[in-house]
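TODO from last week: model IP05782p.
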Amino acid sequence: MTEPENLPLSTWWQMFDEYDQKVKKLSATVGDLETQRNQLKECYAKLENNADKLRTDIQKQQALVKEALKC
């Protein structure tokens, strides 16, 4: 293998360009992951909200059934 100090300048630029492209791709991936994380947080909040509403409605229904059975 060629020693780094013996590489031609064009090879260094090519290596730098490849590295730069990888960094850009990783940066874009991080942005996509952050967007997905935020979407998941929003979905989680909606699910929690729906679960709370469902619990409340079930409790109301159970109370109505108990009241109806007393009669």
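Done. The mean pLDDT is 90.
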